[in-house]
Amino acid sequence: MVPLILVLLLALILFGAGFALKALWWIAVIVLVLWLLGFLVRPAGSGARRGRWYRW
After folding, report:
1. In terms of Cα–Cα distance, which of 48, 52, 20 is closest to 35?
2. Coil, helix or strand for 16?
3. Which residues face 50 on adjacent strands?
4. Residue 41 contacts by C-beta under 8 Å, 6 or more apart in sequence?
5. Beta carbons within 8 Å of 51's beta carbon, 6+ residues apart
6. How many CA atoms lie within 13 A of 29 on its CB side?
7. How many angstroms separate the CA atoms of 41 and 38, rounded?
8. pLDDT per residue over 16-42, tens digit each?
9. 30, 27, 35: which is closest to 53 by C-alpha?
10. Given 34, 48, 53, 55, which residue has the most CB atoms within 10 angstroms?
11. Contact yes or no for 42/54 (Cβ under 8 A)
């Protein structure tokens, strides 16, 4: 009975880790797309130079 519980617990932990990693991959892709869009949509700065779209 104990080995069955350990196997089920291990499967549950691995499923949770797999779901978390998949969610993190989607978040990373969304952040990358927003970052790339920031370079395309950034406003023009003073003169001919283009300004940064972030504040720092």
Report:
1. 52
2. helix
3. 44
4. 53
5. 42, 43, 44, 45
6. 6
7. 5
8. 888 888 888 899 999 999 888 877 776
9. 35
10. 53
11. no
List CB contacts of 38: < 8 A, sequence separation 6 or more.
53, 54
Percent pLDDT > 70 in the chain is: 73
Instruction: Answer yes or no: are the C-beta atoms of 35 and 53 closer than 8 Å.
Output: no
Q: Model-level pTM greater than 0.70?
A: no
Exposure string for 17-26, b = 16+ CB within 10 A, e = fewer: eeeeeeeeee
User: Which residues does 55 contact at the CB level (< 8 Å), separation at least 6?
Assistant: none
Give me 46's structure tokens. 């003073």
Tokens of 31: 């952040």
Instruction: Count CB neighbours of 42 within 10 A.
Output: 13
Locate 3 and state its tokens: 């080995």
